[in-house]
Amino acid sequence: MKLGELTAPELKQRLTGSGLWLRTGEFVACIHSRFADIQHSLSLLYADHPLADNAGFADFHISIENGSGLRRYIRPQAQFVIDGVKPFQPLPANQAFPILEWGMNWCITAYGHHQLVLHAAAVARDDRCLILPAPPGSGKSTLCAALVNRGWRLLSDELTLIDLRTGAIHPLSRPVSLKNNSIGVIKAFAPDAVFSRATEDTSKGTVALMKPPRTSVEQMMQTARPRWIVMPKYVPSSPARLDGMGSGEAFLSIADNAMNYHILGTQGFKAAGNLIDECSAHRFEYSNLDEAIATFDQLAREA
Amino acid sequence: MPPPNPSLVQILKQPELALNRSLPEWDLLIRQARHSNLLGRLHHGIETTGVLGDLPEQAQRHLIAGGNLADRLHRSVRHEISELNKAMDKAGLPLILLKGAAYVAAQLPAAHGRIFADIDLLVPKASLGEAESSLMLHGWTMPPISAYDQQYYRRWMHELPPMQHIFRGTSIDVHHAILPPTARYHPNPGKILADSVSIPALPGVRTLSPTDLILHSATHLFHEGEADNALRDLSDLDLLLEHWGTLDPENFWNDLLKRAVEQQLGRPLWLALHFADRIFSTDIPARVQAQLDALAPSKPGKAVLDTLYDRIFVTQHPSTDRPGASIARKALYIRGHWLRMPAHLLSMHLLRKAFAPDKPKRRAAAAPDGPEQIRPN
């Protein structure tokens, strides 16, 4: 059963009762919350996601709760809670849904040490994966959102999950998080894409989430093989330009962006090495999204 | 017949009981193990028994993650130990490790999958000054604490305020005795230092003799009055008792009882053995049980301790909370202090803490610091 098949009262009943058991790739989150915004945003952005009611196992038991005390009435806050633990300070209640999204990412980076977790976007053609590791501000999420609106499959816009045994990449297929100008850019680039309400004044500015394409969600259990590593860089008025990158440099781009590299030790080193061996690595400068898509489509055809 | 729904403790003792557990059972077991810092140990037992691959994928991934985290912490502890060794060597002192760091350095079974970060060491009281200044020269500093706490530690405690490395952020506790000078019992630290043993693989690094290591861990567990890691620490004792009890059954138990009496630590030893037996069914010979009765509290006293500690030696996950759990935690906090200082000092200290409570030790990270890296960009 898909989340979108629940009526609004049914969804509310789950969120405030036995929990909403939601599957995102290999992970199942059991979510509790009384915030109307969370209910609304979930029904908007996760409509195609399967429920995991019968799974019996949730990787993460998450709840977004009210802040404590009188603040509930004066300046309401939202608090992320995982299985009774509160890893962060609460934030203003209008950020409840972004907090859920960040919290779900945090769960994977804090507890998911059975795999190598890269801070990188991952999209795929067939089962060939393009990894976009990049620091904030490089336009990685914008590029990811553009690609998945032009036929690439979304694996993840934030966290690339690499299996330590097989080297395969596990999809998460969660909404793409965009900020500030990127929101308008992607809305213009893909007028049919579905967005959450924009949340203003977060620590990252204005944030909005884009619904993942239905086909990507339907293929969330299909892993992909790493094929390309591309370090994107948005350079105003630059033509799209793809250059080769040496394997040493490529290794560093992976190690620098691996969130649990220090925890995995030798295993992490080996996984990063195998990843480099399987991929061709490139640097990419761009300013125009259509040119960028054309470049990647060309890359996919050549291989 | 195996128990129908084995508990976390039963699976820790008999990892093959992990087979044929349902997914809802795993859902709860993983969370309980994580809450009690036992996920790494659960993984170790299951993996060495060879049944890990037969478990559902969902359980495997969390167990493997717990094992990887414990491995990483142990690597970091081993590195810290070699750095500490340099600092102590400069001060002309041996590095004497206690608890978790000792288990890891001496490769004892209580190291298996143990999730911990702080390193405890023992320094002769007369050398405390040299040790402290050498540690400071090597980067371990004392994060600012209130003047009251500073004085409390220096005057009444058996350890220095916690020190933290300025670059690596790792924490150490420098002890000069097993118990505070004001405590009911007065174990002689000189004897403990004199009987410390070297760790052959790590020149310059020492730990306590088996009996002293157990007595120290037991005293720490039953005097500190903190519930968070109580189940893990009792599991350590279970593993150590069975390890040395098997290795040297002739002498180990006699030495342990004798040393406990000699060091006025009969009561903590009784508590350790009583609860190791009660919770983990630790293999303790009948003759030892009989001798132990001499160290036992009165019947009503024992009933009270059982009632309190049955609420402490659980996973500290809401699913294993029993009625009165929070009262038990408070009662043991006060008991810990009661054993630590005379009534007049205790009442002043608790009054002070009631009206000017500590700021939480480790404050929850402000959200912008927490998921910063995983925020949208």
| Biggest sheet statistics of chain A | 8 strands, mixed
Largest interface, C-beta closer than 8 angstroms, per-chain residues: A-B, 49 and 38 residues
Classify the secondary structure makeup of chain B into a structural class: alpha/beta
- Give the count of structural domains of chain B: 1
Radius of gyration of chain B: 21 Å
Overall mean pLDDT score of chain A? 94
User: How many domain modules of chain A?
Assistant: 2
CATH third-level topology of chain B: Beta Polymerase, domain 2
**SS elements, strand count of chain A:** 16
Helix proportion of chain A: 25-40%
Distance between the termini of chain B: 56 Å
What is the molecular shape of chain A? globular
> How many helices of chain B in DSSP terms?
16
Instruction: Give the fraction of residues assigned to helices of chain B.
Output: 40-55%
**Share of β-strand residues of chain B:** 5-15%
CATH architecture of chain B: 2-Layer Sandwich
Model description:
The complex is a heterodimer of chains A (303) and B (377). With 303 residues, chain A is α+β, with helices and mostly antiparallel strands. Chain A folds into 2 domains: 109 residues, no CATH class; 188 residues, no CATH class. Chain A is built from 11 helices and 16 strands. In chain A, strands 6, 7, 8, 9, 10, 14, 15 and 16 form an 8-stranded mixed sheet that branches. A 5-stranded mixed sheet of chain A has the order 1-2-3-4-5. In chain B, a hairpin with a 5-residue loop joins strand 4 and strand 5. With 377 residues, chain B is of the alpha/beta class. The C terminus of chain B is likely disordered. Chain B is 54% helix and 6% strand. Chain B has one domain: Beta Polymerase, domain 2 (2-Layer Sandwich). Chain B is globular. A 7-stranded mixed sheet of chain B has the order 3-4-5-2-1-7-6.
Which features would summarize this protein structure in a list?
heterodimer, A: eight-stranded mixed β-sheet, five-stranded mixed β-sheet, 11 helices, 34% helix, globular, B: 377 residues, alpha/beta, Beta Polymerase, domain 2, seven-stranded mixed β-sheet, 7 strands, disordered C terminus
